[in-house]
Amino acid sequence: MSILNSQIEEHYYHPDLYNDIINRLKELNVDLNNVTRKDIARVDEFHVRGVEVSRELAKTANINSSKVLDIGCGIGGPCRMLADEFNCEAIGIDISKEYVVTATKLSKLVGLGRKTKFIHGDATNLPFKNNEFDVVWAQHVQMNISDKLSYYSEIHRVLKNNGVFIYYEVFKKGHGEINYPVPWADESKISFLEQSSAMNSILEQLGLTKNLSTDQTESGIKILEKISVRTSENIVPKLGLNLLMGASERNKTTNLLNGLKDGKIHLESGVFKKQK
């Protein structure tokens, strides 16, 4: 693994994460023999608006019963949602070994172990065959990837003809620099923000056509403002994204929110289709 990848993995590292989640479920008096996706929902999807936006994306792209690759799958929430609600065969890959281990155990815990699979790996060198997936799915991933060309080339390679690439990302917008830490980086050396036009250019050159794009910034600001109020009042959930962001959650959330409100970054989702 490269030095950069090791630094990124270290950023997301939370020792013994699965058992920490289990202990918090116990504190919430959840029956560990009957854990549901709802019980872990507040920690399950590490991106702005969580499962709400994931469900919107899946419905928009009409991906029922598809074979899906989730790049940067985190602890597996989107894969479980796609498998459970959309009957997808969902495979996740993430640079964090701890996240992959946790994702695998959580899927088994909620009864989705046979419908999901998680792999530790590099998004710029995917361990899959050409034309293997109906859908490639990525949420809040490319900010940690310096080699955009390799990343998007791999997405194109593993997609079937007429397959779709679904993204929901943080992109650079203005000329000013954001303040760190943010959820994906404690400092700028592992953050590689670019404008969405750079992604569009690469994907179009590779042979993908944009079908849809949606500005998600205002929706993101609304939810982040609610989170900011809770953290300012020291309302800390037993099980939430605070578990993944650690002691610097307040600073990370504040800097992300301010970046969006100041127009330095924006949230965007969309769908590209691979042409024959």
Keywords:
11 helices; Rossmann fold; 20% strand; single chain; seven-stranded mixed β-sheet; 276 residues; alpha/beta; globular
Quick overview:
The protein has one domain (3-273): Vaccinia Virus protein VP39 (Rossmann fold), CATH 3.40.50. Helices cover 42% and strands 20% of the residues. It has eleven helices and seven strands.
Explain what the structure shows.
The chain is α/β, with parallel strands linked by helices and 276 residues long. It has one domain: Rossmann fold. The protein has 11 helices and 7 strands. β1, α5 and β2 form a beta-alpha-beta unit. α9 runs antiparallel to α11.
Secondary structure elements and their pairing?
Elements: H1 3-12, H2 17-27, H3 41-44, H4 50-61, E1 67-71, H5 77-86, E2 89-94, H6 97-109, E3 116-120, E4 133-139, H7 148-158, E5 159-172, H8 196-206, E6 208-215, H9 217-232, H10 242-245, H11 249-261, E7 265-274
Parallel strand pairs: 1-2, 1-4, 2-3, 4-5
Antiparallel strand pairs: 5-7, 6-7
Helix pairs in contact: 4-5, 7-8, 9-11
**Count of individual domains:** 1
Strand content: 15-25%
CATH superfamily: Vaccinia Virus protein VP39
Q: Report strand order across the widest sheet.
A: 3-2-1-4-5-7-6
**Annotated CATH topology:** Rossmann fold
Going by helix content, strand content and strand pairing, the class is alpha/beta
Number of strands: 7
Helical segment count: 11
Rg (CA only):
18 Å
Helix content: 40-55%
Major sheet characteristics: 7 strands, mixed
